[in-house]
Specification:
Layout: E1 3-12, H1 21-39, E2 42-47, E3 51-59, H2 60-72, E4 76-86, E5 95-101, H3 102-107, H4 125-141, E6 152-153
Parallel strand pairs: 2-5
Antiparallel strand pairs: 1-3, 1-4, 2-3, 5-6
């Protein structure tokens, strides 16, 4: 298996009239975890009301198939690939899909160089992946407001 990682960000096009954004994202997460488990894809997602930033890791073909669905999904707009390529190992090997809101990031940002607003296009790709990794690991050690249950281990 050739391992590939893709980091992308997109405009959050979830409709607040449908319900709270957090609830909609958690619904998406439930489906994503099940699908990623079958496809052996791991990764992480950070979101706010304006943006999604996500890392997908796995077999080249599996990652390409999932990313094609994401690009066609109307809940994502202006999809930008920040980084894509082969990797030797996974950065998120234990998560079918880890999840953190920007509020979670801000709540634990001590030691992380992040601003008050989320603008993934202004963060260098390697820093964005490292930020995701740091936040996920901090949440594992210290759950925030009971949100640890939103993350699913691989």
């Amino acid at each position: 298996m050739q391992l590939r990682r893709i980091l992308y960000y997109s405009r959050n096009r979830l409709d607040p009239a449908v319900g709270p954004i957090d609830a909609q994202v958690r619904d998406i997460l439930s489906v994503s975890v099940a699908n990623n488990n079958k496809a052996k894809i791991t990764g992480a997602l950070i979101y706010d009301s304006n943006w999604f930033a996500q890392v997908l890791e796995g077999d080249v073909e599996a990652v390409a198939a999932v990313f094609a669905k994401i690009k066609a999904d109307p809940r994502h707009g202006d999809v930008v690939v920040a980084e894509s390529g082969p990797v030797k190992e996974r950065r998120f090997p234990y998560w079918w899909m880890a999840l953190a809101s920007w509020d979670d990031v801000r709540a634990i940002k001590q030691g992380l160089a992040v601003g008050e607003t989320f603008d993934p296009g202004s963060i260098p790709p390697e820093h964005l992946v490292a930020l995701m990794e740091s936040v996920i690991h901090m949440q594992v050690r210290r759950p925030i407001r009971g949100k640890l249950g939103a993350m699913e281990r691989a």
